[in-house]
């Protein structure tokens, strides 16, 4: 299973319909909602305003195929129910007088209307049409900032759901397809709308903002970030890991990206303290390239997790250990440094909520004395547990308290989504998770996804020959290490060799 750009998804040719949410009134006439916007949303909105003349795609999406003829009426009703169910789809935040202002429509006031977009003559033309529809409909500066597109064929129809990052995170992206398909099946079967409450993301944002407002520089989360950014040694007495839960989504850290973050080279994150402050971005950064590759099959992932379990660690610790070892082998230095996104769905009531529940934590791992992967797994797991508290305070609030604006260009993320709704159908329905096109000359983002099929590594990186060579070199060696570890319970780390990679 992969997290890819739309251009890499096999859209069929067929009849394209755009499903447009339409409110009974303009959002400016909706009731004023006093609940605060999240720090993530506010920063994302301000970034979008600052680059309004040079828009970038910061959307996430879910694509899947449904067998059988599209029931237009049932699909429209399903989308209406979905919008009524999630308050985040019925709200809009704008900057007014320099501050975020929220407006929220009550349930039942938004209806979806199908609009025929055409029947392109080729799959290439279909891609261009759908790409345009999605890019135009997912700006955080408009409502709605989300869209559904279907492509009907003789055998069935393909669904693409896309939304701006302010509306959904990685977990939301993963779960949305299964949720909407279940609602569609209920409508066709004549089953009334379920009365369950998935939890309000707006309530979460309001509470998170209130809690963050009283955080000071003495907070452990802020102290961890301060130490990382200044290169200081972490203080002893680190927080313990929260007890693991058996149900998704609490069984693994979340994947996600700080949307449209502009940053220095990977070297500045991995080998030296992150330099804080602003810089002037090149006016037209190059389009990034993408790569998706399976690094462990299903059996290999199970074996690697079992080996890690004997050290009382999880698979994420193995992946970070192997990643750091590979970077050291290829000349990126012995002090591995990156940023890891972690989900903030801290209570069961947020498990099925559509929203952006993501915090960021710094991660550092010294590889100097390590000769085998097993030497790094314990320290990697310990570091994850130590820094996870850093993700509990919104990163924008941390930056506000430290009076800095670090630039993140290197991120390694992991998500175990084997237990997400409808995960057993993903292969049969051509399910993929999508992201908007990115433009940057120095960002390297890596997403590990564990699904029932195994572990894939999904990457976006600068679109030049050197970065392409280095990323492919890194990924192929990483896959070798992980395969060896899964087969034998350990893997040998080679001495550093060759010319340094792009990020060193």
Task: Describe, in plain words, how this protein is organized in 3D.
The protein is α+β, with helices and mostly antiparallel strands. The protein is built from twelve helices and 16 strands. The strands form four sheets. Strands 1-14-4-9-8-2-7 form a seven-stranded mixed sheet, sandwiched between helices. Strands 10-16-15-13 form a four-stranded mixed sheet. A hairpin with a 2-residue loop joins strand 15 and strand 16. The longest helix is centred in the C-terminal third of the chain and has 24 residues. It is globular. About 10% of the residues have low confidence.
Name the descriptors.
single chain; 504 residues; alpha+beta
* Mean model confidence by pLDDT: 89
| Major sheet strand order | 1-14-4-9-8-2-7
Give the DSSP E fraction (strand runs of 2 or more residues).
15-25%
- What distance separates the N and C termini? 30 Å
Ordered list of secondary-structure elements with their pairings:
Elements: E1 3-5, E2 15-23, E3 32-33, H1 39-50, E4 59-67, H2 72-85, E5 91-96, E6 99-104, E7 110-118, H3 123-137, E8 146-152, E9 156-164, H4 170-188, H5 201-213, H6 220-230, H7 267-270, E10 289-297, H8 298-309, H9 315-329, E11 335-343, E12 358-366, H10 374-387, H11 395-402, E13 410-416, E14 432-435, E15 444-451, E16 454-461, H12 465-488
Parallel strand pairs: 1-14, 13-15
Antiparallel strand pairs: 2-7, 2-8, 3-6, 4-9, 4-14, 5-6, 8-9, 10-16, 11-12, 15-16
